[in-house]
Amino acid sequence: MIRYLAQRLALAVVVLAGLLVMAFVMVQILPGDPARAAAGRNATAEQVEAARVALGLDEPVIQQFWRFIGRVFQGDLGTSVFTHQPVLQDIAAVLPSSLELVAAAMIINIVVAVPLGVFAAYRRGRAADVAARLLALLGAALPVFWLGLLLQLFFAGTLKWLPLYGQIGFGMDVPTITGATTIDALLSGDPAAFGSSLVYLILPAITLSASFIAVIARTVRSSMITALDSDYVALARATGASEFRVVVRHGLRNALIPMSTILGMQLGWMLGTTVLVESTFNRTGIGAYMVTAVLQTDIYPVIGSIIVIGIVFIVTNFVVDLLQLWINPRLRDSAWVRRRPAAGIPVAAQAGLTPAGSVGGVR
Amino acid sequence: MTALLEISGLRVSYPGVDEPVEVVHGVDLVVPQGRKVALVGESGSGKSVTARSVLQLDPDATIAGSIRLGGQELVGAAPKIVRGIRGSGAGLVFQDPLTSLNPVMRIGWQIMQPLVIRGVSKKEARERGIALLDRLGVVNAAARFDDYPHQFSGGMRQRVVIAIAIIAEPALLIADEPTTALDVQVQAQVLELLHEVADERGMGVLLITHDLAIVAGFADDVVVMRHGEVVESAPVDELFAAPKHPYTRGLLGAIPRLDSDPSVRLTSVADYVDTFETVDDEPAAPAAENGAAR
Amino acid sequence: MTALLPARLRPSSSPRRAPRRRRRGVPVAERIALVVVVLIIVIAIIGPWIAPYDPYRVDLAQALQPPSAAHWFGTDVNGRDVLSRVLVGAQVTLSATGIVLLITLVIGVIVGTVAALGGRVVDEVLMRITDIGLALPSIILALGFAVALGPGLQSAVVAIAATWWPGYARLVRSIVRETRHAEFVESAVALGVSRWRLVTKHILPNSLDPMYVQVTLDVAAVMLVISGLSFVGVGAQVPSAEWGAMIASAADNVLNGWWALVFPGLAIAITAIAFNLSGDWLRVRQDPTLRDGGAR
Ligand SMILES: Nc1ncnc2c1ncn2[C@@H]1O[C@H](COP(=O)(O)OP(=O)(O)OP(=O)(O)O)[C@@H](O)[C@H]1O
Ligand SMILES: [Mg+2]
Q: Are A156 and A20 in a shared domain?
């Protein structure tokens, strides 16, 4: 167990280090002079020089790097030129809204993909094969934003069941407590606003989940096929266990092992895909924040967002690694971990996820 | 002497590439109450398929003929009835203890499960499980009850599998090559144990095996299968003393080849194991094909 | 020597299985996909000549006309013919995709080869860099580069290429490491062939097969990121006929001009499906063992 934990933790640290190096390199190669930006538009040459020294930009690169790391660990991701706010503060304000969207999409993802995968494994055959393949094909080919617009067209336009876009119904207002509209509505005890914000969440969440469903369904299907063909499932059946017990308690319980790993990675990718979904549905969130910053050539918010999304990715993957200890008891046994074929980094699993190595435009 | 298990005219087929492929062609077999019957035959002769069809474990197998367990007809019976006899009418032990246990469940829970699903309280199921595991020779059974399969050795795991198979007190135990995957020394122990437990509980046993040495010491009756058919069945002494079918003679390797069956090669007792490969004129390829085509 | 032959030329290792495998040639779906791929490439080349109208001519009097005999795909909010724009857009989108993949290939080959032949430390460092590149969504990283380069299709292309190469570096590295010990390489080494020559003349040409498969499979993915960046306004700018940018400008009129967004989206989707299916087919053709496992 110790060995496994050490392995996973080391991996998380390596990826984090790489992320920070990359962020630093991005800041370095970006044209434009941060000293001038910091000193302000009308600064004199001396003022710019002073800002340069104040920011430590006259020091050797290595020193600047350590300084950068130090700042990041203190939560200083720079200041946005346009909002004049510290980037971290900006992100803290918009991130909950994105997380709410990602959570909703994740629920849809699991609720749709898992039964689908189980069913396709249980009712094996040509029809299930074709359906699985078709789903994978569409999941990897439909542009996320286009799908979102089509859903708007159909559910908001033609059927008029759901609102076109936005965060909450017109005229409704919830105080900003966490930043996630549904939760804020709940916290402020406003059921109407809560209902409204949920309704507004439906289409974006479906859109966001769409390209991820096929991958989970396929993972579940293939690990369920392995499980259902195994001796232990036959043995469970042979003792008189019901089909439900055999499929869920024995089969799905084992399929959870690969599934949870991939769900963990998907969480980070979903957060990345909010860039497209939040633009499509006019929602606030880290994706929309990034896009705005890019369009305004506002460097630090973009780099800061990359760091935050990267950290969310690293943390969720580590949490999933911890969950694995509970899901897969063999990992608690160091001898077994050692005997196991070389523990790959999580991204290595990516290659096997989709034939195109891509998920709806988000690799 | 009443028949516990009575199979007659059993035909089993699987969906093939174009049409169903029949792999068992009319097998007759009887396991009397409390007796031990060995089912022998070369690889691919249909032993496992026959055994598994008693509990109807393969969803894609088509079964015809008659299988009576304790007088109850199982072919064509309602799924509920079939499920009812699984575990309590007949228990099953597979060949490979490494794959027979669910890797993510505690062995104790896996042993208790057949009782729990029959409405026995968890507490009682646990007590009975520990007692049985203890009887099956697992040292410190109570402490090891909450271990996971990977913490057990192969021989110990097979004892767990046997415990799972017999805890709901079936009248018949079907053991499909229960010792093939074990060390020679452990093999003997496990077989000995099976023999004892069967006698204690008055269970009938259908033992599938390749190993004629096992048959001689274990079984009362022997059924020899080949190419999905029974070629000979007789009490063990009779069969060893005077095998009637040339194939059986080939298996026993004791008698010079007669002209009757050209595919049987003359063997000595020492190398009869090799015989299975050489008489095997239908290699396992069809199985691989079917597996891949699914 | 069999290792040198592409898988499909190798003698079958299990002759017993051969008669069972019916040779049906290319399956129907894949056959259609291949035709569509060719068709799309042709359109990308001749699009500007076959477009019935000027794709950039604004005619507000004709704004948001539904599909008709004159305008098969209708007109957009500026009165431009959607069909013409989709046809011309094929060139814009596909050439951008092609350039991304070309740059990616070059960087990937260089980094992968250096990692494979450059010793442990170099390898370790380069592979950790690719880890990050593969871990984070490409669109996020691309935004990081795009902010430096400013909005525009060219910067989008550069930004995506800058995030896309790690997969290729991995691929090239593993191929080079495998081929390094192939017989023909060892004999070349024995003959005193220089390292550089070995790589360019012997190893790389033999590594091409898996790479063109990967390129085909990546066309869809890269195209989706390009159009995604254009959709949010970071990529192609108005009035470009890039498919994603077209959808972006139609997004404001979802309810009264569906045609202006449906057709460019269909173009993206069809192109993506066709390339993915073709890529899958190429992959299976190269390594027939994937055929049965592939769907799982
Ligand atoms: N699920 C299945 N689908 C299709 N064919 C099968 C299936 N299971 C078994 N068969 C075929 O039935 C035949 C008999 O197989 P069986 O497993 O009963 O042999 P066996 O006598 O138990 O051999 P062994 O000693 O190797 O275990 C084989 O030819 C096999 O290919
Ligand atoms: Mg068998």
A: no
Instruction: Say if B170 falls within a structural domain.
Output: yes
3-state SS, chain C, equals CHHHCCHHHCCCCCHHHHHHCCCCCCCHHHHHHHHHHHHHHHHHHHHHHHCCCCCCCCCHHHCCCCCCCCCCCCECCCCCEHHHHHHHHHHHHHHHHHHHHHHHHHHHHHHHHHHHHCCHHHHHHHHHHHHHHHHCCHHHHHHHHHHHHCCCHHHHHHHHHHHHHHHHHHHHHHHHHHHCCCHHHHHHHHCCCCHHHHHHHHHHHHHHHHHHHHHHHHHHHHHHHHHHHHHHCCCCCCCCCCHHHHHHHHHHHCCCCHHHHHHHHHHHHHHHHHHHHHHHHHHHHHCCCHHHHCCC
Determine the pLDDT at residue B252. Answer: 75
* A25: containing domain: 2-73
The answer to whether position B251 is within a domain reads no
Q: Which CATH number fits domain C28-48+74-285: 3.30.1330.10, 3.30.70.20, 1.10.455.10, 1.10.3720.10?
A: 1.10.3720.10
Task: For residue B33, give how far its alpha carbon lies from the nearest alpha carbon of chain A (Å).
Answer: 21
Are residues A93 and A59 part of one domain?
A: no
DSSP state at residue B79: H
Does some domain include residue A336?
no
Q: Tokens at residue C249, please?
A: 């400008």
Contact B168, A240 (CB under 8 A): yes
* B78: contact with C, CB 8 A cutoff: no
A112 pLDDT above the threshold of 50 = yes
Spatial contact of C286 and C8, defined as CB atoms under 8 Å apart: yes
Ligand showing the shortest atom-to-Cα distance for residue B47? 1
- In the three-class reduction of DSSP (H, G, I as helix; E, B as strand; rest coil), residue B31 is classed as strand
User: Considering only CB atoms, which chain C residues are within 8 Å of A356?
Assistant: 217-218, 220-221, 276, 279
pLDDT for B247-269, tens place per residue?
888 777 644 444 445 454 444 43
Q: Which residues of C touch B289 (CB under 8 A)?
A: 17, 20
Using CB atoms, which residue from A146, A293, A299 is nearest to C265?
A146
Q: For the ranges A241-245, B65-69, C15-19, which has the lowest average pLDDT?
A: C15-19
- Structural domain boundaries enclosing B122: 3-241
User: Closest by alpha carbon to A68, among A41, A34, A32, A91?
Assistant: A34
Overall number of domains in chain A: 2
Amino acid identity of residue A336, one-letter, is W
Tell the residue nearest (CA) to atom 25 of ligand 1: B43
Q: Give the ipTM.
A: 0.84
- Domain residues of chain C, as ranges? 28-48+74-285
Q: How many domains does chain B have?
A: 1
pLDDT in tens, A52-110: 777 777 778 888 889 889 989 998 888 888 888 999 999 999 999 999 999 999 999 99
Q: Are residues A48 and A171 in the same domain?
A: no
Shared domain for A44 and A111, answered yes or no, is no
Same domain, A7 and A126: no
Nearest-Cα distance to chain A for B30, in Å, is: 20
Task: Answer whether B16 contacts ligand 1 (Cβ < 6 A).
Answer: no
In sequence order, what are the beta bridge partners of B39? B208, B223
- Report pTM: 0.83
Look up the CATH number of the domain holding residue B8: 3.40.50.300
CA-CA distance, A62 to A54, in Å (whole number)?
17
Least confident of A311-320, B4-13, C8-17: C8-17
In-domain check, residue B222: yes
The DSSP 8-state label assigned to residue B153 in this structure reads -
pLDDT reported for residue A356: 31
Residue A33: predicted pLDDT: 67
Q: Is residue A273 part of a domain?
A: yes
Residues A195 and A93 reside in one and the same domain: yes
Distances (CA, A) of A92 to A89, A180, A349: 5, 11, 31
Contacts of B16 in chain C (CB under 8 A): none
